[in-house]
Amino acid sequence: MADRDDVCVLVPTYNEAATIGDVVASFVGQGFEHVLVIDGGSDDGTRELAAEAGARVVEQSGTGRGSGKGQAVREALNRHVEQPYVLMLDGDATYRPDEADRLLEPLFDGRAEHVVGNRFADMEAGAMTRLNQVGNGIINTAFSVIHGRDLTDILSGYRAFTLESVRQFDLTADGFGIETEMAVECVKQGVSTTVVPITYQARPDDSETNLDPFSDGAVIILTLYRMAKTNNPLFYFGSVGVASALVGVVLAIYVAYEWFVVGVSHEVIALVAASGLLFGIQLLMFGVLSDMIVALNREQTRRLSEIARQVGNESTAADAVGDGTEPSAEGESDGERASSTSRP
User: Can you tell me where the transmembrane regions are (predicted)?
Assistant: First the structure.
């Protein structure tokens, strides 16, 4: 049975001196020996405070500077994490260490490979601005519509997952889109995912957020749409196709009205309308075909995974049987020899 020795607590940071010491100390106090802080070039003593509190501290490569959370997470997972389970959180003291077991138990029990903490289940007053709540609602709704799965709070920074499952993800985000990419990859790769309630605390007064609700929100929305190309191509191409076709229809109605009612012809606008309709229809057809290819690829991948799992299980069983029969055969032959020597 897995325990806390098998867990790496991963904390990406940038200028979190006001809180990082308490965050690291609280998780160490909960029995987590492997706390990894990967820092994006803080200039306020974050790294030193984290090390004093008991964390292993590494500085991410590249520019970092706070906007590189995604790059920091990818680098940590690929180079520095050695434990089979990862508990990821922010270093701003908004997540409670005593709720870590809620996220880890589904992993230890084998019920899930990725667990997301739902901040909206118990959000303290002032923990999230009204603007951020609206933005989160829009993003979560967009995710469920585009990718066909409701994970309640895809932007939550408090989550746990197996290292094996996350290493099959195609993560490319450098900034705050990393949680979005993880959620999409869970759906795309068929990773078993569950959501658990957590408490979301307000940041301390002397701690400042590195998140910009407008620029980072736009990046997250674009990430959702961009990743639909390989996860839901019907939506990705179909949405543009429908928009193009609607523009063509509107222009065609205008041209027809001008021609039949006013008596004025608009050849150029008519050409644009026809082009918009044809382009829209072609994109819709391409989206349908791409969706069929993606569905087929998923089914083939699932079957290959099942075959590989069965072969692995059979190989393990065969090895176990081989190890068990050899001693049994030796014992049996020894018994036969003992029986034969005791006969008159």
Answer: 234-257, 269-296
Residues 40-86 pLDDT 10s: 989 899 999 999 999 999 999 865 555 588 999 999 999 999 999 99
**Number of domains composing the chain:** 2
For residue 108, give the CATH number of its domain. 3.90.550.10
* 26 and 56 Cβ atoms separated by less than 8 Å: no
Q: Which domain holds residue 132?
A: 4-231
Which residues, in sequence order, are CB contacts of 335 under 8 Å at separation 6+? none
Looking at 214, 231, 248, the residue that finishes a domain is 231
Query: Which tens digit of pLDDT belongs to each residue from 220-229?
Result: 888 888 888 8
Same domain, 221 and 243: no
Closest CA to 185 of 143, 156, 136, 216: 143
* Inside any domain, residue 341: no
DSSP string for residues in 149-215: ---S-TT-S-EEEEHHHHTTS-----STTHHHHHHHHHHHHT--EEEEEEEEPPPPTT------TTH
Q: Report yes or no on 268 lying in a domain.
A: yes
